[in-house]
Amino acid sequence: MGWGEGERQGPGVCSCRGCGTPLSLAFADLGLSPIANALRRAEDNGRPEIFYPLQAWVCERCWLVQLHHKLKPEELFSSSYAYFSSYSSSWLEHARVFAEEAITRFALKSDSMVVEVASNDGYLLQYFKRAGIRIQGVEPAANVADVAERERGVPSLRAFFGRDTALKMRASGLVADLMVANNVLAHVPDVNDFLAGFAILLKPEGVASFEFPHLLRLIEDVQFDTIYHEHYSYLSLLAVETLLARQGLRAFDVEALPTHGGSLRLLVCRTMAPYSPTPALAALRAAEAAAGLNRTETYLAFTDRIRRTRRSLLRFLIQAQEEGSMVAGYGAPAKGNTLLNYCGVDTSFIAFTVDRSPHKQGTWLPGTRIPVLAPNAIDVARPDYLLILPWNLADEIMEHMAHVREWGCRFVVPIPETRILA
Q1: Does residue 205 share a domain with residue 228?
Q2: Sign of torsion over alpha carbons 186, 286, 196, 202
Q3: Distance separating alpha carbons of residues 92 and 112, to the nearest angstrom
Q4: What CATH number is associated with residue 99?
Q5: Does residue 313 share a domain with residue 265?
Q6: Residue 353's closest CA among 335, 213, 226?
Q7: Domain span at 405
Q8: Is the peptide bond before 22 cis (omega within 30 degrees of 0)?
Q9: Could you write out the three-class secondary structure of 169-198?
Q10: Are residue 245 and residue 229 in the same domain, yes or no?
Q11: Where are the beta strands (DSSP E) in 118-175?
Q12: For residues 126 and 240, what is the distance between their CA atoms, to the nearest angstrom?
């Protein structure tokens, strides 16, 4: 019998992966769930699908939120990893703007070196390459790294990043003026080893840029669907600054971003580097304290909000079914699989979903076995509702699929509660 969300447990159940303190405060229990990016393919027919506990805990010493059940990275980020960054036009634009701003702000030149950790399909480093700046990607998923090299000419070291990888890179003569880690810090099981790699590879006045979904936004907007096995940690400025200090690193600037439902971009340097802290950093520390990210009761209160979100989605789907309306999905993101599995939604509620990525088309969502088709399936089936699973991209998707309104189809988003959009 499982423990409930937001309940205190006996001491010593597991230890914080940041500071080693025994964990006793549960944040969210989403039951059993398959690996969120493990799309089912035709060759998987007949093979059992494994479901793992999906439970998040909070460290009451350093306030790092983290998964209880830890899978090996090799099980999650395999040679057939399904996520390719370049299939979101808004994310590509986000990357392009960052590259331009970073080149100017940090005076990067042709002899500078930019290293991206978890460089995926070269979506970001391509813009530094076009500016004539030296680049190096580090990407553990071989199939994604192959695309980066073949289609964008981005050199990609196929490895998990950490202390050992950084030492090998430095031994080869590589040191970085700028390191970038977008949406990867949460994916790392050993955060101390991972951050130690940055301390090894950065030049004395080098800068590292980390982007990650902000825990404060997860709590405020009930983004529990962003909890899945690939995300070992759920990060606040409070927790990350503690992790950085352990490696001789510090933050000197922070920016709130709209990406992934609300993220932070944290600029980091060595402790003794000559970068003055910006007012934005102090302001965010104060905002997190005011929101109670250093108080136990904030985390205990999250349970009921998750349950309300689930009831809201199920009410909509049941009503649509009783009206004889067809609901189709848009997108096959990891967050959607957490949502659908936790809510118990399968093909009896959602006929199919579509995705722009050809790497996902012709597969089935893990757990729910909802088929993933090409976007033109929407035009053939003409559903009454289109449930946007990557709700953080709702504006982009609604613009791209605006023509569905011609037959009366309406867009729906499920977070923080199910809403039918105009």
Answers
A1: yes
A2: positive
A3: 22
A4: 3.40.50.150
A5: no
A6: 335
A7: 304-421
A8: no
A9: HHHCCCCEEEEEEECCHHHCCCHHHHHHHH
A10: yes
A11: 134-138, 156-157
A12: 28
Shared domain check, 349 and 278: no
Structure tokens at 417: 């509660």
Number of domains present in the structure of the chain: 2
Average pLDDT of the segment spanning 359-381: 97
For the record, the structure tokens of 221 come out as 């907007």
DSSP-assigned letter for residue 225: G
Q: Report the C-alpha gap between 58 and 9 in whole angstroms.
A: 11
**Co-location of 196 and 168 in the same domain:** yes
| Token duo for residue 19 | 């500071």
Could you read off the pLDDT of 7-30 as tens digits, one per residue?
A: 334 333 589 999 999 999 999 999
Confidence of residue 83 (pLDDT cuts 50, 70, 90): low
Q: Does residue 6 carry a pLDDT above 60?
A: no
If asked whether residues 183 and 207 sit together in one domain, one would say yes
CA–CA distance from 158 to each of 148, 155, 231, 298, 305 (Å)? 11, 10, 20, 40, 40
Q: How many angstroms separate the Cα of 393 from the Cα of each of 187, 238, 331?
A: 21, 27, 10
What are 218-243's pLDDT values in tens digits? 999 999 999 999 899 999 999 999 99
Q: Which of 389, 297, 410 is nearest to 342 (CA)?
A: 389
* 60-69: burial string, b at 16+ Cβ within 10 Å, e else: bebbbbbbbe
Return the amino acid letter for 137: G
**Residue 75: which pLDDT band, with cuts at 50, 70 and 90?**
low
Distance CA(58)–CA(296), nearest Å, equals 9
Residue 45 counted as domain residue: no
Sheet holding 52-58, edge to edge: 25-33, 52-58, 65-67, 233-234
Q: How far apart are CA 56 and CA 169, in angstroms?
A: 34
Strand-pairing partners, residue 225, are none
pLDDT exceeds 80 at position 69: no
Tokens representing residue 32 in the block? 């059993």
| Backbone φ and ψ of 280, nearest 5° | -60, -35
What contacts 48, CB < 8 A, 6 or more positions away? none
Which residues in 214-326 belong to E strands, given as ranges?
Answer: 233-234, 249-257, 263-270
Torsion-angle region of 206 (φ positive above 0: left; ψ -120 to 50: alpha; else: beta): beta
